[in-house]
């Protein structure tokens, strides 16, 4: 099979791209994400038609946040769009006249990294995506493992703190409350409140108040040596690395890939994650250690992965 299209449905934008067998993106287009479920389907169809102009395209892969059923056809539940048992595959196929595969967005990103990014050469890879929340993907024996009902690898909602912080999912103490972009902002605000003298650079980048601190300020401040910003990354990394050690007990992969906006900081966040991983890895002195790698494809991983999954059929 030659060219396929990958579609990445984000909270604000829908991106579609024509992708070849090497994982290269030949053309892209972006449209705003509409408010209504039907509007989103129309927008996907429009984006697919626009981007495919001039190309012979054979299939479409769609990455969507939420639970996707084991047939890779129906979005059972989406957190950001009002989709409940939405027959996305059928509806988009009717509009674009091409075979469609629907995949969870974190699974699609994991597959993209495994095929064309940091996971190349590994057979067993576990991916985590540190974005607003924490997503995951499991590749064992060169296969994407989706579970019996299609909803595996929701690592972000593993409960790591009994009776811990309330999570958007309704549970308490979920991993993503401690290891995610949102958690990073919370750490920085709390620390800036407690010790503003250690957060002068960080506070100067926002509106001067702890509440005004946002993710991009923390990255910039950490690079300029701001103690609170650096410490906030370390706290995030401590939780992320400890969780990876638990995942090593479950899956024993040869590599973990850390993606998402937070991982754009590279070794600033990866090195403390590796340190925490080694600290918490059970029997660490007597076993081989999985590598902890930064994702390589950035925000394109989901689109490229979805396109490749559509190619695989
Ligand atoms: Zn949760």
UniProtKB/TrEMBL annotation:
<protein>
    <recommendedName>
        <fullName>Glucokinase</fullName>
        <ecNumber>2.7.1.2</ecNumber>
    </recommendedName>
</protein>
<dbReference type="GO" id="GO:0005737">
    <property type="term" value="C:cytoplasm"/>
</dbReference>
<keyword id="KW-0418">Kinase</keyword>
<keyword id="KW-0678">Repressor</keyword>
<comment type="similarity">
    <text>Belongs to the ROK (NagC/XylR) family.</text>
</comment>
<keyword id="KW-0547">Nucleotide-binding</keyword>
<keyword id="KW-0808">Transferase</keyword>
<dbReference type="InterPro" id="IPR049874">
    <property type="entry name" value="ROK_cs"/>
</dbReference>
<dbReference type="Pfam" id="PF00480">
    <property type="entry name" value="ROK"/>
</dbReference>
<dbReference type="GO" id="GO:0004340">
    <property type="term" value="F:glucokinase activity"/>
</dbReference>
<dbReference type="InterPro" id="IPR004654">
    <property type="entry name" value="ROK_glcA"/>
</dbReference>
<keyword id="KW-0963">Cytoplasm</keyword>
<comment type="subunit">
    <text>Homooligomer (possibly a homotetramer). Alternatively, it may form a heterotetramer of two glucokinase subunits with two ORF2 (AC P40182) proteins.</text>
</comment>
<dbReference type="GO" id="GO:0006096">
    <property type="term" value="P:glycolytic process"/>
</dbReference>
<keyword id="KW-0067">ATP-binding</keyword>
<keyword id="KW-0324">Glycolysis</keyword>
<dbReference type="GO" id="GO:0005524">
    <property type="term" value="F:ATP binding"/>
</dbReference>
<dbReference type="InterPro" id="IPR000600">
    <property type="entry name" value="ROK"/>
</dbReference>
<dbReference type="InterPro" id="IPR043129">
    <property type="entry name" value="ATPase_NBD"/>
</dbReference>
């Amino acid at each position: 099979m030659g060219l396929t299209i990958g579609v990445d449905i984000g909270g604000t934008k829908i991106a579609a791209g024509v992708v070849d067998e090497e994982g290269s993106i030949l053309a892209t287009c972006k449209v705003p994400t509409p408010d209504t479920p039907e509007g989103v389907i129309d927008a996907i169809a429009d984006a697919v038609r626009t981007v495919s102009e001039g190309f012979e395209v054979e299939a479409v892969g769609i990455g969507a946040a939420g639970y996707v059923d084991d047939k890779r056809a129906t979005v059972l539940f989406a957190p950001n769009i009002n989709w409940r048992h939405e027959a996305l595959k059928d509806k988009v196929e009717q509009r674009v006249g091409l075979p469609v595969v629907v995949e969870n967005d974190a699974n699609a990103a994991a597959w993209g990294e495994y095929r064309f990014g940091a996971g190349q050469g590994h057979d067993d890879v576990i991916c985590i995506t540190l974005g607003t929340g924490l997503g995951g993907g499991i590749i064992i024996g060169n296969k994407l493992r989706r579970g019996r009902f299609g909803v595996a690898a929701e690592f972000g909602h593993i409960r790591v703190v009994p009776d811990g912080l309330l999570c958007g999912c309704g549970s308490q103490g979920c991993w993503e409350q401690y290891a995610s972009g949102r958690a990073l902002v919370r750490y920085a605000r709390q620390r800036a409140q407690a010790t503003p003298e250690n957060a002068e650079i960080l506070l100067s980048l926002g509106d001067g108040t702890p509440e005004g601190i946002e993710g991009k300020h923390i990255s910039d401040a950490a690079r300029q040596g701001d103690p609170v910003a650096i410490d906030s990354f370390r706290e995030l990394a401590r939780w992320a690395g400890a969780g990876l050690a638990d995942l090593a007990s479950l899956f024993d992969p040869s590599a973990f890939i850390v993606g998402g906006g937070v991982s754009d900081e590279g070794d600033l966040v990866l090195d403390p994650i590796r340190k925490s991983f080694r600290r918490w890895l059970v029997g660490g002195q007597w076993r081989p250690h999985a590598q902890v790698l930064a994702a390589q494809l950035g925000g394109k991983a989901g689109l490229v992965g979805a396109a490749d999954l559509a190619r695989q059929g």
